Each structure stands twice: as C-alpha cells, then as structure tokens.
Amino acid sequence: ATPAARGVWIDLLALMMQADPYGHLVVGGKVPTVRQLGALLRVGEADLQRLMTEREDLGVLARNAEGVIVSGR
Fold it and tell me: 23: closest CA among 56, 59, 61, 53?
C-alpha cells in the first residue's frame, strides 16, 4: 500500500471514530460522497477515489450491507 493510501485511511478512521453510529463513515448523519470527503480531507476527488479503491482492493476498507464504509474495530 502506498503511504498516501494509508494516510487517507487514517483520516477516514478518525472520521468514523467521531460518527454516530461509531465506526461508520457518516458525516452529519449522512453518507458523504467522494467529493465531500475530498473536500474534508483536502484530497482531489479522483485521487481520493483511487486511494480508497487501493485500500478496498487490499481488504482494508470494508462496507456494510448498505454500502457504508465501516471500521472493523
């Protein structure tokens, strides 16, 4: 994995730790778009999508049945 992908994952974990429900990637009670996440993380939309796909391909980034990104911890 690239350092950039690990950094994005750490930032996403921090957001999930603040979310309700805990461990789900929701902001203000809603699932953010890649564009919204990019703005929050200050990462371009295309770059963020690529980095998230990298983590998903490695089995690190997981989604629940509704497609929401969740932390396994």
Answer: 61
